[in-house]
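Our consortium's second objective concerns turning raw sequence data into structural hypotheses that experimental partners can test. To show how far this objective has progressed, the report includes one record in full. It was chosen at random from the queue rather than selected for favorable results. The single chain below, 541 residues long, was entered without modification.
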Amino acid sequence: MRRYLVDFDTAAMKKVYTDVLIIGSGIAGVYTALELGDRYDITVITKEEVEISNSVLAQGGIAVSLDKNDSPEEHMRDTLYAGAGLCDEESVDVLVHEAAANIKRVCNFGVQFDKSENNEKQLALTREGAHSKNRIIHAGDATGKEVCDKLIHTLMQRKNVRIEERIWALDLLVEDNICYGIIAYNEKTGEYTAYYAGIVICASGGYGQLYYYTTNPEVATGDGAAMAYRAGGKLADLEFVQFHPTVLYHDKNKSFLISEAVRGEGAILRNSKGERFMPKYHELAELAPRDVVSRCIFKEMQKTGDSHMWLDITHKSREYLEKRFPTIFSTCLEYGIDISKDYIPIAPAEHYCMGGIRTGLYGDTSIGRFYACGESACNGIHGANRLASNSLLEGLVFGHRIGACADQLIHDDRIERIKAMPDFTSTGTKNGSKTSKEAGLDPVGAIQLLRRTMSSLVGIVRTKEGLTEALEKIEEIEKKADQVKCSVPEEFIAVNDSMLAALVIRSAIRREESRGAHYRADFPNTDDAWKRHIIVSKENR
């Protein structure tokens, strides 16, 4: 197996020295940078424009127990229930008890959440699936954008922060299990740069683009998990991939999310006959955990032979819907759907990855001086199925925690120390040596085949037969990709994603039970013998 994506020699290439290097410009990366303060020289790299991330697309909101009838303990109970017995309770305890303090910090950065109609000094609270209380704070139906816009604006005013766009993080520079920086590719110039840093923080997002039908932007190709794995780091829970139940199903758009908050405000699911079906499957009906709702929709589609189901919120007035869900209302209207009169055509699509780089309570990984937070990390909070609106909160809470412990690793002589770090070379590794054509690989075609294979065979309902078929197809792509001497983004993606997809499938084959978002039709029951995380690394591949 190759160690690096590209051939390089840091002694002969451009170097950037920085106290802290942050990979990713979503809520986790940007908030971490802000929480580090102005003491350090900070570089944030992102492979697209800074405003493009999963966080920006988050519609629903952020879960936090603020109501007098709610508590962190109840928030924790709901999180553990949704996580289907696989949450790390210590991590969840940190999340729910540090939530309110981080929301207060976010508000101090100028973020404007919706206020209660009865008290303008209080934040408005709504409910989403598997929450027992109204505890979701929101900014219309574009909460992620509001939060990210304000945080990014604040970050750009910091003189100690440098933001570099269209920079692809390729590989970690690791020696004796200590991370010294990364090798990166500048898409604008086609040049490679060695970024040396006192600590590296990965907030690069998840691996949703392994799937053909996904709500994720094109940047979510699992780069962080891939480079951590190649460097010897540990990954966990890769088999747990959450499918959002209600994604717009339209000829021109099959990736636009219809927020869970719509169901939280009373929307119901109907089949092609107009019949409401969720109450016959689960006592919480439309507000059951996401994995349950997605499987129920999938079952109804199989029964009727339909390609989609319907979401009905027509009992709410147009005035209310335009105010509460402005983005969803206007977007649907663009496709000829007036949600105050019409049912919304929906179908499940890949949405969130519970798995990722295995981390501790401070974002620490199995590699020294390398941290991870947000969707790229797996700290066990989400278990087998993420509770709605816990993801943005996770980025905030653990971004703050990484910032809080940075002083322990970065010293006064930091820049001088960083400049004395060793040079690295990829010479002698098992890098690819062929062009894509010589290896028989069409990178773009391979990526499309991989995504279609994952959506059709490694989706909501899985079987050993289907997973084995998928693995055979992916391993054939991986075998060719591993021979390629990468030089362009399509080749980076083909190598990373064929490796990651194979790891996801192998984990799914190993887990012979159904738990949370991982449902095996050939093992439909939950088995306590599998109440454990599947950890993968190069050592146990």
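The partners drew two points from this record. The first strand starts at residue 14 and ends at 23. The longest helix spans residues 489-510. Both points have been shared with the crystallography group to help prioritize constructs.
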